[in-house]
Amino acid sequence: MKVTLSIKRFDPEKDEKPYRKEYTIDVEPTFRILDCLDKVKWDIDGGLAYRRSCSHGICGSDAMMINGKNMLACQVLVQDFKKKYIKIDPLPSLPIIKDLIVDMDGFFAKYEVVKPYLISKTQPPVKERYQSQEDRALIDEAVNCILCGACSASCPSLWSNDAYLGPAAMLKAYRFVFDSRDDAQAERLDVVDTPDGLWRCHTIFNCVEVCPKEINITWHLSQLKKKCAMREL
Amino acid sequence: MNTYKFFGSRNSGAKNWYLQRISGIILVIVLIGHYVLMHATPDSGHTYKAVMERLHSPFWKGIDLTFVTLGLWHGLNGTWNVIRDYHLKPWVANTIYVLMILLGLTFWFIGLNTILSF
Amino acid sequence: MIHKHDLIIVGAGLAGLRAAVETSQYADVGVISKLFPTRSHSGAAQGGIAAALGNEEHDKVEWHVFDSVKGSDYLGDQDAIEMMCGEAPDAIYELEHLGVPFSRTKEGKIAQRQFGGHTKEVIDENGNSKRIPVLRACYSADRTGHVILHTLYEQCVKRNVRFYAEYFILSLIIDDGVCKGLTAFNLRDGEIHTFHAKAVMFGTGGYGRAYRVTSNAYANSGDGVAIAFRAGIPLEDMEFVQFHPTGLYPLGILVTEGARGEGGYLVNNDGDRFMKNYAPTVMELAPRDMVTRSIQTEINEGRGINGGDFVNLDLTHLGAAKLKERLPEITGFAKTYAGIDPVKQPIPILPTAHYSMGGIPTDLYGHVLADEKGTIVKGFYAAGECACVSVHGANRLGTNSLLDAVVHGRRTGKTLVKYLREAEFSPLPDDAEKKDREMFANLYGTSSGENADKIRLRLKEEMTNKCGVFRNEKDLNSMLDTIHELEHKFKNVHLSCKGKVFNTELMEIIELGNLLEFSDAIVTGALARQECRGAHWRTDHPKRDDVNWLKHTIAFKTEKGIELKYKPVVINKYQPQERKY
Amino acid sequence: MANQTATSFFSRWLEVLFNYRKHTGSWAWILHRITGLGLTIYIMVHIIALTGLLKGEAAFNEEMALFTSPVFLFGEWLLGALVMFHSLNGVRIALVDFGNGARYHKQILAFVYVLGVLMVAGMAYLIFLH
Ligand SMILES: Cc1cc2nc3c(=O)[nH]c(=O)nc-3n(C[C@H](O)[C@H](O)[C@H](O)COP(=O)(O)OP(=O)(O)OC[C@H]3O[C@@H](n4cnc5c(N)ncnc54)[C@H](O)[C@@H]3O)c2cc1C
Ligand code: HEM
Ligand code: SF4
Ligand code: F3S
Ligand code: FES
Predict the structure, then answer these.
(1) Which residue's C-alpha comes closest to atom 1 of ligand 5?
(2) How far is CA C109 from CA A177, C311, C487, in A?
């Protein structure tokens, strides 16, 4: 079976600005888009650059924009597309380093801002701390995040304001604010309760549409919003 | 990373967020009432007499005042929210903020003046 | 550019990060990883991490030790296994304190589940002692590795550990038997950097990518193992490569053991539950290596589905509700990658290269050993899948490898804290980057030559066929020839992309060089070992041979090729017996 | 080193906005924003128009005659549609934020659309046929 990939290319050492290039390759219907990229890389142009590692949607390396939507290249197959003309772009609105590789430094800097680690102010017991199944259930979804960046890069609020913390960072804040073992709720809420934090989220739900781990990020943000608003009132 | 400093007014946005929703919900109720009234009984909205009659009742006066106040606040706060979605230089943002307050007050007084004159 | 840190850790998987958490309070630590830390393959581990906590039912460290020894087909060093199983509970409690969101029992303790080969001793009605499965694997849904990896990274962020993410290490600087640092290149700009350190620790993970069908990530190309080998460090027990019985056809993505644990059937083209011919009593729940061999036999004898190279894992009789509740991730994988709904159709599976039992030889404290006598390489440490302590012997038990990475990461960290207090920086040799610069210049200078992908494909294909589940002398010899031929070709390999920024082609070529390097050791070791033990199965020597082969292989790289030496297995409490389940 | 940031922020922003697929929620957001801004302008116009009351009965009735002309009635109906969308979607947003609406936001939106169409039709009846 033949598919045509239209890939956005950019080599900082050669190109003034990004351009598109088409590659027609022979594939099986069960190929992942990642396999298609490999095929282009191995058979046609060794210079094509993209990140990848686990190849089954768990490491979060290969988020990119495929046919106008952010997804993991290793989590979609050729047969999932009706048209065999597939457009591949890097994650939108992040600085492109080369081809499909974007600069994630800003994304991770925002992750670090929300104090993404357990802060416990009490001495732990000799064995484990107890946590009820109900308390654990509160963070069931949030701990699945693989930091792929698909959500933040799909958020219109972030496109227009790159200081916005973005859904991924705030989901991480949720993960700790709602962990019954954590003692630093207030500090973390201070970080997200800022004009470039929670209040830039307009419940657009793009993040939820793209999350490869099917996390309902907006629901988590709404829980944080309520907590912050209650604090103010 | 401390670039996430705030610009514009001093609060974080939490209160505005809350009030935007509350005012919205009150507005739905008021608006639906307003619409039905205006168009279910066309005369009541479009003749001087009917309007006068309503404006003389304290109840309707109250409703209209709420409408003007909440509508303006909700609309302008919403607009301010839209503006804040862009990463403007602080002085630009602050200038717009002041202008919007002035604009809001002006229209509020005009509206108030009309309603309270009768 | 030269960077100076007390300690350089290579690898940001469970082993590397655990050591970083341990050491960063006391020393200046730099962590190098070719992937952003949370992309490390530890994150793919689903099932759990073993420890005899006894949270769900009575359990004893002693039982865990016995299971691991037996699982290793008696090739595991029993002092190391006792140490690992003994420290396991504390290591898990510490993980919990660091923030790992384990699943919980009703009382709020860490939840545990059953896993293949983990048993407890019970007395049956006739007064005989027998072993039945025990709830020992601590888990967080089916994402155990993921949550531990993220938690450890979070703790490193908290401790301000300096990360060099997307730096690819090239070679070790070992001078007069002392490790002084290493060289690496920054993928972002292609520059070579030297890292000067009092000590270097490797936690570079496994090497499943030498096989065509594998559950491993692209990044698992055994770089650390190959780099150490090239620097004169021997490799231990490389011939033991674990094949997981159920990889999703054709990619090899892992279908967890739990699928059979929940009652899944294995069926061949004739619709037969063929395990009845191989393990009539336990059927599908036989140990990993056994099931793998049975599946491979069916395939080899033409009973694969439609004569193809896969059989079916049938879960349809379990019903939609149970699949949704117990195996959601697997259901998702089958849907996404095979377009199959396990509720209605069987899942096509085949054995997949999964784990490397062998690696860089270390002692119980993480010191890398320079020979079979146990000489320590000063300043060089290793832990995790790239190291061989050896706790897994010839076959590791499920959930023991995350434990290995965490326990040894922690132990090595503790050793390092002590070492770094006294150690000094020793001067770097002048030409530390010389070899790497030459290699780069060579590659950038090529205008034509061999295609790296052809070499890689052929290596992976033949490793799968000739040095896979079943091995014999003829195949292994032919495999050695192939490797030598490919090594020869590799000298002429062509780099088509001449850019500096994210030259991933360059990276893949270097990885290929590493694959060739250690594959040689795997095949040489396998050829020599004329017996069947654990994951290593020689059809031409179909018996375990404790008289001649109850010993560890130590492979050295010499001018003339690979030279094999051997060292005895540490046997304390449990004498080798026949391995029956 | 050539840099793609050479293009202006605004044009990059527009490019992304246009190229990215519009999911249900994006449409709702875009429409909510446009209608919100439109209504804000309208409410100001409305306030000015009502100052006509101050000029006395004749002047006001003259103005009203204009507003009850078919063109304006049609305009008013359109405006009603905008208000309808904005208010119902506003309620949806409030449900998402205050309640558990994030789990059912698409269903709520479908409900909003159906209710909106019904109300707009109802308004057409009131304005044009009543
Ligand atoms: C699909 C799957 C499921 C598994 N499930 C389980 C399970 O349920 N229970 C269990 O106990 N075990 C399981 N395992 C095994 C276990 O996950 C691994 O053995 C363990 O995670 C290895 O950890 P590590 O820290 O040694 O290496 P890894 O996590 O692989 O990390 C390697 C690190 O080294 C870095 N690195 C490598 N080469 C270079 C280089 N050249 N330059 C710079 N950095 C480099 C990488 O970037 C990475 O950070 C599973 C394995 C797989 C593949
Ligand atoms: C009738 C009931 C109304 C409800 C329930 C309502 C609700 C809301 C809500 C919840 C928001 C916040 C959206 C967000 O922050 O993402 C909002 C925004 C807004 N509203 Fe309303 N509103 C109503 C009427 C009005 C009216 C009458 C006006 C005009 C005066 C108006 C103008 C705006 C504007 C300009 C915004 C900002 C748009 C944006 O943020 O995208 N609204 N409305
Ligand atoms: S929330 Fe989902 S989309 Fe966002 S980074 Fe995490 S996994 Fe990716
Ligand atoms: S897309 Fe953006 S606006 Fe909120 S709901 Fe998601 S973060
Ligand atoms: S390669 Fe790991 S998520 Fe796609």
Answers:
(1) A55
(2) 21, 39, 53
Beta-bridge mates of residue A8: A20
pLDDT at B6 over 50: no
As a 3-state breakdown, chain B gives helix, strand, coil percent values, each rounded to 5, of 80, 0, 20
Q: CB C146 to CB A58 under 8 A?
A: yes
Residue B9 in this model has a pLDDT that exceeds 50: no
* Other C-beta atoms lying within 10 Å of the C-beta of residue C196: 18
* Residue C538 annotated as catalytic: no
Is C383:C405 a contact under the CB 8 Å cutoff? yes
Q: Pairing state of beta strands C241-248 and C347-356? A: antiparallel
Residue D3 pLDDT: 43
Give contacts of B 16-75 with A, CB under 8 A.
16-18
The yes/no answer on whether domain D23-129 falls in CATH 1.20.1300.10 is yes
Contact at 8 Å (CB) between A68 and A123?
no
Average pLDDT, rounded, for chain C? 93
Interface probe for D, chosen from B19, B28, B80 (most Cβ of D below 10 Å), is B28
> Residue C116 has what pLDDT?
80
Per-residue pLDDT band for C578 (boundaries 50, 70, 90) equals confident
Which tokens is C206 given?
């496994």
Whether C247 and C351 have beta carbons less than 8 Å apart is answered as yes
Please report the number of interchain residue pairs, chain A to chain B, with beta-carbon separation below 8 angstroms.
Answer: 63
Q: Give the active site residue among C18, C113, C143, C288.
A: C288
Amino acid code (one letter) for C543: K
pLDDT band at C581 (very low <50, low <70, confident <90, very high): low
Domain ranges of chain D: 23-129
For residue range C544-565, list pLDDT tens digits in order.
999 999 999 999 999 999 999 9
Would you state the pLDDT for residue B1? 36
Q: Does domain B14-116 have CATH number 1.10.357.10?
A: no
> What digits encode the pLDDT tens for the residues C404-433?
999 999 999 999 999 999 999 999 998 889
Euclidean distance between CA atoms B46 and C539, whole angstroms: 98
Rounded to whole angstroms, how far apart are CA atoms C285 and C243?
A: 15
* B102-114 pLDDT tens trace: 999 999 999 999 8
Q: How many CB atoms lie within 10 A of CB C148?
A: 30
Identity of residue A117: Y
Cβ(C56)–Cβ(C96) under 8 Å?
A: no
d(CA D2, CA D7): 11
The residues spanned by each domain of chain B are: 14-116
Q: What are the pLDDT digits (tens) for C218-229? A: 999 999 999 999
Q: What per-residue confidence (pLDDT) applies to B46?
A: 67
Whether the CB-CB separation of C496 and C505 falls below 8 Å is answered with yes
CA-CA distances (angstroms) from residue D19 to A166, C168, D14?
A: 20, 35, 8
| Residue C85, burial from CB neighbour count under 10 angstroms (0-12, 13-18, 19+) | buried
Residues C138, C105: Cα–Cα separation, whole Å: 11
**Residues 114-173, chain A, touching C (beta carbon < 8 A):** 115-118, 120, 124, 126-133, 136, 139-140, 143-144, 146-147
Contact state of B114 with D67 under an 8 Å Cβ cutoff: no
Q: Structure tokens of A172? A: 């991480």
The rounded distance, in Å, linking the Cα atoms of A50 and C507 is 12
DSSP string, C376-402: EEEEEEE-GGGEE-SSSTTSPPTTHHH
For residue A77, is pLDDT > 60?
yes
- Decide whether any atom of ligand 1 lies within 6 Å of the C205 Cβ: yes
State the Rg of chain A over Cα.
20
What was the pLDDT predicted at D121? Answer: 87
Closest ligand 1 atom number to CA of residue C387: 26
Lowest mean pLDDT among A211-225, B42-56, C306-320: B42-56
C365 neighbors C279 (Cβ within 8 angstroms): no
